[in-house]
Amino acid sequence: MQPTVQQIIDQFEQFAPPRYAEPHDPIGLQIGNRDQIVHKILITLDVRPEVVQEAIANQVDLILAHHPLMFRPAPHLDYRDPQQRMYMDLIQHQISVFAAHTNLDETPGGMNDWLGEKIGLQNLRPFNRRTKDFSEPSIYLGVVGELPTTQSVLAFAQTCKQVFNVSGLRLTTHHPEHPVKRVAIIGGDGGKFYRAALAEEADVLITGDVYYHTAHDMLAEGLSVIDPGHHIEAVIMERLPPLLKEWQQQHDWQFEIQVSQINTDPFQFI
């Protein structure tokens, strides 16, 4: 049978409950009809105009994204504005959009575990535990683990560049030759949590969008940091399809799964 948008949401939110999200994070159904029948799902990191056109061309019913479509309220709906036109195109073509953001980041077995596994860390364990208004000691925003083979900071940065398939990254260190064994990783913008990595005695922290002045603080405290960018969270497009297939078998659902072919990373290194 074909599920509804709401049935897909219900299943996803069992895996990554909304209560795990950070305050004011606009997760969940962004646009759409909860009763709509789903024949085709598109998985993407970001919902950008090019992704919406891809969804329209492929007759997609539901977009599953990591980053919310709307971080801020739309001030107007002017079709000449590409951002606003994107919303209108979604509505016109009856495409629903669902986003799982910090709830997916903080759920056990979610985004940060995926990133730690991708870089090859062993003995993965949570760190940077989050305090919520409910009793869930398992909630965390980051993982820490060990490399199977010790590398220098500089060599490990090169490894990250290859594994995450980025054309460039930023390395913050005073000691590029120092050995790296224990690594902490926080997907997205995790620089503000660098002291939690220090508390774990991590040799290196991997995170994106490191702020200039925070980088100085990291250096002063002796922490090496690798910033491969925010876009490494595109790992969702590798890890979500197997989950959806598992749910298909569990519920006897019939729908097609597509992974976006659009690169939504806004940065280029020249």
Automatic annotation (TrEMBL):
<feature type="binding site">
    <location>
        <position position="230"/>
    </location>
    <ligand>
        <name>a divalent metal cation</name>
    </ligand>
</feature>
<dbReference type="GO" id="GO:0046872">
    <property type="term" value="F:metal ion binding"/>
</dbReference>
<dbReference type="InterPro" id="IPR036069">
    <property type="entry name" value="DUF34/NIF3_sf"/>
</dbReference>
<keyword id="KW-0479">Metal-binding</keyword>
<feature type="binding site">
    <location>
        <position position="66"/>
    </location>
    <ligand>
        <name>a divalent metal cation</name>
    </ligand>
</feature>
<feature type="binding site">
    <location>
        <position position="105"/>
    </location>
    <ligand>
        <name>a divalent metal cation</name>
    </ligand>
</feature>
<dbReference type="InterPro" id="IPR002678">
    <property type="entry name" value="DUF34/NIF3"/>
</dbReference>
<protein>
    <recommendedName>
        <fullName>GTP cyclohydrolase 1 type 2 homolog</fullName>
    </recommendedName>
</protein>
<comment type="similarity">
    <text>Belongs to the GTP cyclohydrolase I type 2/NIF3 family.</text>
</comment>
<comment type="subunit">
    <text>Homohexamer.</text>
</comment>
<dbReference type="GO" id="GO:0005737">
    <property type="term" value="C:cytoplasm"/>
</dbReference>
<dbReference type="Pfam" id="PF01784">
    <property type="entry name" value="DUF34_NIF3"/>
</dbReference>
<feature type="binding site">
    <location>
        <position position="233"/>
    </location>
    <ligand>
        <name>a divalent metal cation</name>
    </ligand>
</feature>
<feature type="binding site">
    <location>
        <position position="67"/>
    </location>
    <ligand>
        <name>a divalent metal cation</name>
    </ligand>
</feature>
